[in-house]
Design brief:
By secondary structure, this protein is mainly β. It has a single domain, classed as Porin, CATH 2.40.160. Helices cover about 10% and strands about 55% of the residues. It has one helix and 18 strands. Strand 5 and strand 6 form a beta hairpin. The protein is elongated.
Length: about 200
């Protein structure tokens, strides 16, 4: 019995050591751009962004709110992220801009106004995941005639980063909490943001 206990303690100690080593060797996320500050991990012709001057800008033409009452689509949305550093585990920053300046309508044709709430938001980027956070809620108030008059917010929204030309950030079925006079029982948000700045942005 004593021998079994010793083996058990040894196994726990080994697991603790492995966890410590794993935490210490986690690879950092790096933001790269065309002709940035030299960094071998960014690939040929690219280097780290300058976090002091380079904000990340993305635009979407298909932002969509899905609900049982009506689905709302906006044909232009823009967001901007101010990163605190070019590399980190995670990279921290803030979302300083979110707008819906294009035409927003229900799929039935009713015009909608979309007013962003509680900006700025916290931002965390680690690996291929961008997380927007706000204690009150990140999101917007949506008014579509007599159909919808509601705030749609999320304390945490995760977007998936995909490197490419351009690199994209995709929100897929982000669940939103609702508050207001005319709100649906459930609501989800989908959008694909194409990065437009800095040039050649990739996440490594």
């Amino acid at each position: 019995m004593k021998y079994v206990k010793i083996l058990g303690l040894a196994a726990l100690a080994a697991m603790a050591v492995m966890a410590f080593v794993g935490a210490g060797t986690a690879s950092a996320t790096t933001l790269c751009k065309t002709s940035g500050s030299p960094e071998a991990g960014c690939g040929a012709g690219k280097g780290e962004i300058n976090a002091e001057t380079d904000n990340i800008v993305g635009t979407s033409t298909n932002a969509k709110l899905t609900s049982p009452i009506a689905n709302v689509v906006c044909n232009h949305s823009e967001t901007e992220i101010d990163p605190a550093s070019s590399t980190g585990s995670p990279i921290l920053g803030s979302i300083t801009k979110l707008t819906f300046t294009g035409e927003c309508r229900t799929e039935g044709g009713t015009a909608c106004t979309v007013t962003v709430k509680n900006i700025p938001y916290e931002a965390e980027l680690e690996g291929t995941t961008l997380t927007a956070k706000d204690a009150v809620g990140a999101g917007a108030k949506v008014v579509c005639g007599f159909l919808i008059n509601c705030e749609f917010l999320a304390n945490e929204a995760k977007l998936t980063i995909t490197n490419g030309s351009p690199t994209t950030a995709t929100a897929s079925k982000v669940v939103l909490k609702r508050n207001g006079g005319i709100c649906p029982e459930t609501a989800e948000w989908d959008a694909v943001y194409n990065t437009t700045s800095p040039a050649g942005l990739t996440v490594k």
